Task: inverse folding
């Protein structure tokens, strides 16, 4: 009955924590590809290959359904995986759609034509690879019209968070927000398009100001997953063993993860 949570590093732990809080009875297997993080500076083929390898490892743990709790993987690999690679009886879901549904006030599965929405000016903060993919704009266009999206690649933020350098991360956030505001002075909403960024949500909000609605993904993904599993219970896999797996050094990753979420987390080698 396990569900897999995949990420390039530690950012997906924010999604794992939200899912665990929403569905405490659901065993979760987390896979962090820390040996190859960050994904945000890699090309699409490399991201696709690494993501497929990680998802296959989660299948080995009995996870028929895997959440790509990594915006870069969701942007650069998910559609290709679903169209060309995914075998019958397996599902891989990304983290963009729940966010866009919240932004556009749509219910899951609403396939009506795109329509005008209240928010017209949206700032997207994401990794360089996610910005280059334009996946967010593509998914948004399926649901809304007349929305101006200004994307800001936030180089260095993930590295600073993974290294535990909060002061550097906050300084980088302020710099990236300033750069975006030069192109979009008055955004109505901001999308934190990386699962690391909820840890810096207060810094983003402070830099953007109180009038900008800031959307992050963890709780939205958890609610969407709960709804999905209620409708499609056959995709709850046979696995029963919760675990945290990493391609990196388990001792070092465990220490960083414990610092990251401020709770003890013990990783083992993937």
Result:
């Amino acid at each position: 009955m396990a569900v897999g949570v995949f990420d390039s590093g530690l950012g997906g732990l924010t999604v794992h924590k939200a899912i665990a809080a929403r569905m405490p009875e659901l065993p979760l297997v987390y896979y962090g590809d820390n040996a190859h993080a960050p994904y945000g500076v890699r090309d699409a083929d490399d991201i696709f290959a690494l993501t497929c390898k990680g998802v296959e490892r989660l299948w080995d743990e009995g996870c028929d359904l895997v959440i790509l709790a990594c915006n870069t993987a969701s942007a650069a690999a998910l559609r290709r995986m679903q169209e060309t690679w995914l075998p019958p009886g397996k599902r891989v879901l990304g983290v963009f759609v729940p966010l866009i549904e919240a932004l556009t006030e749509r219910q899951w599965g609403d396939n009506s034509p795109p329509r005008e929405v209240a928010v017209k000016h949206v700032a997207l903060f994401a990794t360089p690879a996610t910005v280059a993919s334009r996946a967010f704009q593509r998914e948004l266009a399926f649901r809304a019209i007349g929305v101006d999206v200004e994307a800001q690649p936030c180089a260095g933020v993930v590295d600073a968070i993974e290294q535990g350098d909060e002061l550097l991360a906050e300084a980088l956030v302020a710099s990236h927000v300033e750069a975006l505001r030069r192109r979009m002075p008055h955004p109505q909403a901001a999308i934190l398009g990386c699962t690391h960024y909820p840890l810096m949500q207060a810094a983003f909000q402070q830099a953007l100001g109180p009038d900008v609605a800031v959307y992050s993904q963890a709780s939205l993904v958890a609610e969407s997953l709960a709804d999905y599993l209620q409708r499609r219970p056959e995709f709850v896999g046979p696995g029963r063993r919760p675990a945290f797996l990493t391609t990196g050094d388990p001792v070092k990753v465990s220490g960083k993860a414990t610092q990251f979420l401020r709770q003890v987390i013990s990783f083992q080698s993937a």
User: Anything to note?
Assistant: The radius of gyration is 18 Å.
